[in-house]
Design a protein that fits this description.
Elements lengths: L12 E5 L3 H7 L20 H15 L10 E6 L7 H15 L8 H24 L5 H16 L8
Antiparallel strand pairs: 1-2
Helix pairs in contact: 2-4, 3-4, 4-5
Amino acid sequence: MSSRYFNPFQGLDIRVPNRFREAFGRYCQTHSEDGAKSSVVHSPFPRMVDMWFLAACLGAQGGRPADYDTKDTYKIIDASILSSDPWRIDALVLLAIGYTKNVEVISQPRDVLAIASGFAVAGMDRLLEMLGDGDSEPVWNLSDELDRLLKKLVPAGAHSQ
């Protein structure tokens, strides 16, 4: 288990394709130029790393990271942010080990982050659909879609065993 003081991704950047730049601005609670804070109803992710991580989880469910042009990307945040939620470091390492079937991948933090970013890109279109599908605001659309997804993954009654 990672500690708050261990982050193998320190000094690395979390980057996403430029085509998702507007989506991160829209769905993350960023401050506008006039200092107004975005509404959680329309921007359900407190931080860009939260949106990126959910996209990576959705992409991982599909089983294959996306191939994308790493030159056509922009930095959403420094990977040092992962220290604030150390469990995410563990999850990313486990994702890379599961994907590569090789525990040695953990000795290459850049590769681990590249695998996670590939999964994030693979899951981003699905996440954007979830945010936009429905008759309500993005936070409620996402909530409904995640609820449906979890009900499919966890059969009724399985949690009570």
